[in-house]
Structure formats: C-alpha cells, structure tokens
Specification:
Shape: globular
Distance between the termini: 73 Å
Helix content: 40-55%
Largest sheet: 5 strands, parallel
Strand content: 5-15%
C-alpha cells in the first residue's frame, strides 16, 4: 500500500469519518490508532488490499462536535452498497436483476416484481441450521450455515453467472437485510460485480410499499366500467387495452372473477401481500396524464381485500355504464365459465354457497336443472333472481357518479362490437381531455 494512501486514511480518520481502530483492522493493520499525547503511532504492517478502504463509509455523518457517529450497520466491501428500501423501490427498474435470497417458501408468499429466487439457504437447510442452533450450539450452527451458503452461492454462480459481464448490477435482499443477503453480496462483490443490498430486507420493502401504495392509487384518473353481471365489462376492459387504453384489471391480478362463483380452476389466488405487491407494480407504471379504465369492484375480490385508498378513489371517479341484452349476457357467461358447463357437479357445489341467501328449495331446483344439462336456464334465473335485483341500488350507493354515467350499449358479445365500443370510449376520453386542455376562448 502506498504512502499517499496511508496519509489519506490518516486524514480521514482525524476528521472522525469512522472509528480508527475498527477501520484499520478492517484493512489489515493490527494496531494503528491516534495517540493523543504522541500523535499517530506508526505500524510496520502493510495494507494488503486497498479495496478494504470502503470501511470509510461516505454516508457516515459527523456531528459538529467532530466526534464520529457509529454507523447503523457494519460496512460491506467496495463493490457492495446498502440502499434504503424506499430508494430501492423507486429505482427498481434500474437494476439488471433483483435477487431474493430467502428460502423458496418465503419467496412464494411474496417477492418483488420480477425477482429471481436464489436462496442462500433453502427451507430444509434452514431447518437443519435452526435445529443445530437450538440443540447443540450457535457456533456449530454457524459453521454448518456457512458451508451450506457457500455451496449454494457457488452453484448459482456456476449455473447463472458464467457468462455475465462485469457490468451486471444486481439488487439483493433477504428477510431483514442480514446474513443471507450480505453473505451472497460479499461473494458477488469480491468477484467484481457492483451489488446493492436492501437495508432492512423484505420487511423494510414491505413497509415502504404499504406507505407508497395509497399515493400510487390516488395519483391516477380513473374511468369506472359499471354494469350488471355478464354485461361484458371484463371483455370491454381487454378491448380497451388492445386499443391502446390504460387499464387496471383487478380481477386478473387477483385471479378471481369477483363473485360467489368467480374462482378460476387451476389458478389459486395470490397471498394478500403478493396481490398488493403486484397492484403497486401495476399502478406505478401507469401514466397519470391519461385516464385509467377499471371495473367497478367491491372491497374484496375473492379472498383478497383492495386497498382502501384505491376503493375510495374508484368510487369517486366518473363511470361508464355497460349494457348488453340478456340473451347475450347468458351466452357470454357460459363462454366465460366453461367449467360449469362441462362439470355440472362443480357447478352444483358452487351453488351451495348461495343457500343462505336463496334457500334450499331454489338452490336444489337449480342443481337438478344443472345436472339435467339445462345450464343456460340456471344462468338466466341466477341473473334475474340473484345478481340483477340489487345491482342498480348497490352501484348507485357506492359510486357517486353512477347516475351521470355515459351509457355504452354493446351490440353483442363479439370481438368486433367490443372493439368498436373501445374505440368510441377512447375517442370520447381523448376529446374530453382536449377540451379541458384548450385555453379559454377557443
């Protein structure tokens, strides 16, 4: 290590940027610290690696008294930097990869959008280490954990990073920003990759997301598609997206059609946490200068709860009322729910959920009709006796602008009619925006 670099270290330490003893120990000097009576005590040790100078954390603050403040966490190496959870969310698209180093079960419950799961310790390995920690000693558990982490990291490096250039910039996080992500980041940093680790890990990210979600929900201007069950709102939303409109498909995010019969076979709903993560990710990508089209929803979509800020904003937004003939509605529902047409017993099982509302007699009759292949008649009566009666009053009560809604009448349920309606809606929205933007007098 050169003499100028040593003098630079000394100058920084005199200014109180970091603790002298720990700083010099981290860069390979056994004893070098300020002696108030004799100045700086010399040490013959050579400094083996100038990269260890990252112990001089540029983000460490120094109070007016000149005494160094203790950092919240020990520093990493020069290629590894910590980033606050709020900053990580704001810069999420700027990383080449987002790596979740938690176990596979933790990842399944929730993770950042697009995150890769590279576990430092898998579920079974965490259980082994935890058992050893409790039954033998923390020291033996750490030895086992270190060996397992090293083996797992080596595997990911060999399999995933063999051809990765030095310029690759990943973001890493674990549960609380502790040893799992820091160990992984340290090895990647030693290779030469510039790595950022989320301070506080997933817990901090979750808190930052929940704090930001209301802002993301309320900064947008919505147009709400209202209409009775089977009127084609979801199909129209898709047609709007295909025509270039901005849409928020809450049912797609929730993997549910938002009714008693709305669960989708083979598509379990995400956890509440991951639903909120996906919703935040969708909202943040939308342009606030353009309208966002969404369906009218209740506070819950299946088992998932919508954020209160989003619900209130949607309910205060302008509405569009979608109308479709009853015959077309029945045909649309049978097309959109083929599982009930193909599996009458599944249909009968789902109808049991309505017994408390409609009684055993009516549900029993519908089940007999379904088993007899008369699904269309059951759907027609479901609309007439269950879905439609409370629709208008409920929508008017919950959506303040429903009475003034522009009516969109679909000729039929076909793609051509939906595309025409979507073009008309977008043209009308664009014209309304232009009139609002025009200067007075024009």
């Amino acid at each position: 290590m050169s003499a100028p670099l040593l003098r630079s270290v000394a100058r920084r330490l005199r200014k109180g940027e970091r603790r002298s003893v720990s700083a010099f120990r981290a860069i390979g000097v056994r004893r070098r610290f300020p002696d108030r009576s004799r100045g700086w005590r010399k040490c013959p040790d050579e400094l083996p690696n100038h990269r260890a100078l990252t112990v001089l954390d540029p983000q460490a603050s120094t109070p007016r008294s000149g005494k160094a403040t203790r950092a919240a966490s020990p520093p990493l190496d020069i290629n590894v930097r910590r980033v606050a959870a709020t900053d990580a969310l704001q810069r999420l698209d700027g990383f080449d990869a987002v790596i979740d180093t938690r176990s596979e079960s933790e990842y399944a419950l929730d993770h950042l959008p697009g995150a890769l799961n590279w576990p430092s310790l898998r579920d079974a390995e965490r259980a082994r280490v935890g058992t050893l920690y409790a039954q033998v000693s923390p020291f033996d558990a750490r030895k086992l954990g270190a060996a397992l982490v090293a083996r797992n990291v080596a595997q990911f490096i060999e399999q995933e990073l063999a051809d990765t250039p030095r310029t690759w910039r990943p973001l890493l996080y674990c549960w609380r920003g502790g040893q799992r992500s820091r160990s992984f980041a340290h090895i990647l940093g030693q290779i030469g990759f510039r790595v950022q680790v989320v301070e506080g890990g997933y817990k901090a990210l979750r808190a930052a997301l929940l704090a930001d979600l209301p802002e993301q929900a309320t900064r947008l201007s919505y147009r709400v598609l209202c209409g009775p069950t089977g009127s084609g709102k979801t199909r129209l939303l898709g047609a709007l997206a295909q025509a270039g409109g901005q849409t928020l498909d809450l049912e797609a995010l929730a993997c549910h059609r938002a009714s008693v019969l709305g669960s989708i076979p083979g598509q379990p709903q995400p956890t509440q946490k991951h639903f909120e993560m996906q919703l935040w990710d969708t909202l943040r990508k939308l342009d606030p200068t353009r309208p966002v089209f969404a369906e009218a929803e209740s506070k819950k979509v299946g088992d998932l709860t919508l954020p209160e800020a989003l619900i209130q904003t949607l309910r205060a937004s302008p509405c569009l009322r979608v109308d479709l003939a009853d015959r077309e509605r029945v045909a649309l529902l049978m097309e959109d729910y083929p599982q009930f047409v193909n599996d009458p017993e599944l249909f009968c099982e789902r109808l049991d959920a309505l017994v408390s509302l409609l009684g055993h007699a009516m549900i029993g009759r519908w089940q007999e009709l379904a088993r007899d292949g008369q699904t269309a008649q059951v759907v027609q009566e479901l609309l007439e006796q269950h879905y439609d009666p409370g629709y208008a009053s409920s929508t008017r009560r919950n959506f303040s602008h429903f009475a003034d809604a522009r009516v969109i009448t679909l000729a039929d349920r076909g793609a051509a009619a939906l595309a025409r309606a979507a073009r008309d809606i977008l043209a009308h929205a664009s014209g309304a925006a232009d009139s609002l933007a025009a200067p007075p007098g024009r």
